[in-house]
Every structure is written in C-alpha cells, then in structure tokens.
Please model this.
Amino acid sequence: MNSNEIDIHKELKKYFGFNQFKGLQEQVIKSILNKENTFVIMPTGGGKSLCYQLPALIQEGTAIVVSPLIALMKNQVDAIRSLSSENGIAHVLNSSLTKTEIAQVKKDITSGLTKLLYVAPESLTKEEYLNFLQTVPISFVAIDEAHCISEWGHDFRPEYRNLKGIIKQLGDVSIIGLTATATPKVQEDILKNLDMSDATTYKASFNRANLYYEVRTKTKNIESDIIRFIKQHKGKSGIIYCLSRKKVEAIAEVLQVNGISAVPYHAGLDAKTRAKHQDMFLMEDVDVVVATIAFGMGIDKPDVRFVIHHDIPKSLESYYQETGRAGRDGGEGHCLAYYSYKDVEKLEKFLSGKPVAEQEIGFALLQEVVAYAETSMSRRKFLLHYFGEEFDNETGDGGDMDDNVRNPKIKVEAKDQVVK
Ligand code: ADP
Ligand code: MG
Model:
C-alpha cells in the first residue's frame, strides 16, 4: 500500500473531520499531489473545494486559487481559517486590501504560513502581485469555476482568458481546473484555453436520481395549474423561477391571494428585503419563493421539494443548476417546467440585441432547451446526454423518474385509438 494513501485519509480527518472522501476526491487529490495538470468536473455540492484545499494544506508552498467572486473567496477563507489556529493559513488578495494588509499577506506567504491564497483573475494581472508571486514557492494553481473561461458557459469572464499567460510567468506549476459545467463544448474550451490537453480529467456523474422531471405545455391556465400543484405539496418548500421581475411580483401576489405563503425575490428589491425573504424561506416562515435567476447561488436548503419553471430557462445548463436545488437531501424533488414556443421567441428577441457572437451561442443553447421540452424521450436521458453522459433507463438510477418514461406519448395515442 502506498504511504500517500494512508496519509491523505489521516489529513482528511485531521483538517476536515471527515472519515471518507466523497466521489472522486481521493483520485483527484493524488493527481494533484503528483503535480499533474488535473481537470475536475463535479456537480454543485460535489465537494470540489476539498480537492484542492487538502493538497494545498499538506504541501510545501502556497497554492493560488483563482475564483470569480469576492464573496465566494471570503467564505472559503473563513472556512479554512476555522480549521486552523493560524489566521494566516489562508488569505484573499484583492484590490480592497490596505497597504498594511497587503504587507501582512506577503509576510505570511514568505514565511511559509499561507497555504491558500485566493485571488480574483484581475488581481493576478497586477504587476506588483505577479512580481511578488514569482519570488515565492507556489504549490499549484487551482482555477475554480473554470467554465468562466468559455463563452459557451453561463458565466463568461473575459479576464479568465488571460490566466494561462499569467500562470506561465509563475514558472512550471501544475494547474487544476474545476467546474460544475459538464457540457463537452465548455470542457474543450477550458482545456484549450488553459493549454492543458495533457490534463487528467475526473468527471463525476451528473445524474440526480431523486429528481422527477416534467414539462407541461404552458396555457392560459398556468396560474391555477401552479396553485393546484402547490396545494398538492402543502407545507413543502419550493422555488418558482420566472424570467422577469414583473412576473415574479405578479405570481407571488397571486399565490398569496390564494392562501399560499410565498415571497418574491429579484435583483430589483433592496438588499434588506432580499435578505429577509431569503431568510424567511430558509427558516420556513414561507413555503415558496418566487424568483428570478438572481435567487439560488450558494443557497443550501436541503429539503426543497419542488422547483417550478414558470418560463423556460435560457440554457439546459441553467435548467440543471436551478432544478438541482430540489432534493439536496436525497428526498423527493419535483422539477416542473412550463413550455410555450412564445417564450422561446421572447428569449430570442432578448438575444437579438446582443453582439453577434453572443447571439449565435445564445440561439444554439436555446435550441437545446426547445429540443428538451419537445422531446418524447426520457428527460433524464436527454439531459445527461447533453452533459456527455450515456444513461440507460433500464439499469440507471432514477430511470423511470420523468414524465416521458412514466407516460410515453406514443402509448397514450395507441390507447386512445383502442378506446375509440
Ligand atoms: P462544490 O464546490 O463542488 O459545489 P463544495 O466544495 O462547496 O462543493 O462542497 C459541498 C459540501 O460537501 C460542503 O459542505 C463540504 O463540506 C462537503 N464535503 C466535501 N467533501 C466531503 C467529504 N469527504 N465528506 C463529507 N462532506 C464533504
Ligand atoms: Mg465550488
């Protein structure tokens, strides 16, 4: 048995208090410790952070972690600090730091105390920081949310495109890319842009066996249909996604009038109201949040029992992320989407105001949503295929958990003929 193996289990327990690795974590960590370029694709909640945090903590030098959001970085730094008695074990380097704070960060890195340094991609381009980082030992560079590098992803950040050039200036360090975006196109883009075709890829399954997928045709009666659905799930937590703020307000009001406890959530509400509504949902003071896509990032309510799409999302990637908020605890999660071609045209109209390249990508992504909504094959099979994964409904977990499998369209027609 390899001594590495024994050690990483011990270190896992020591730093994180966990007895076991989750999914592919162990393989990924070994790959990182072997200084290999590594590409990690795991769904949200899969445990990607630990894949780079553990090797960073047990190796010489400082690991640089590139992350797109200051809030995410701060959360992670706080979490790491809580595992240690040394505040300096993890730092964020960004433009909001004072001169004194920057001096402290540099001191902690130089002394070898800092194991994880979180940076926004634009900070990494700063001469001053880059010059400094060239003088200290770097264990590896992890690029979290690596899909930000791709225009095919849902969160393109042009600054991510410069990363490879910058990392090269740090010398011969290995790169770890991590993302929850599983589409083959985005993966190709990531590998190409980071120039790491040699990377070992670790991809977890994206199958969410406990989620039931259903698409209903959107009609004039959608509101009463939604109310009936919610009343059938009385007292259960759910999220309803709408395209516009106006629709969010309108639906929340309709629900309230019909005796359903619901609050709206969108970026047009002030921060205090948003926080309040989010807390009400988390604390179960209300059952339902009616929201735009502004709601959900980082929200970890394990017992969301349904996610309704009042309007179709702009890509299957978003659909997967949004429906993925249901059934985190492994219990029931009903994902109901309403579909009408009129909504597709609306989304196309939005897109037509955008730059041409963005338009083309937007249309292509939208076509996949249309195909999903109109398919008569298993929704789960369709979704997983979109993520480059083959699924067999006979043998796969959750193989009968969608409307098309439960009520095949062709069979229904055949039955109708018999009755007539
Ligand atoms: P991701 O970045 O893939 O969305 P996170 O890194 O945020 O996921 O991890 C999700 C959750 O899983 C966290 O609460 C984390 O503490 C937990 N987790 C990670 N690894 C393990 C493990 N080996 N055992 C138990 N829980 C874990
Ligand atoms: Mg993450």
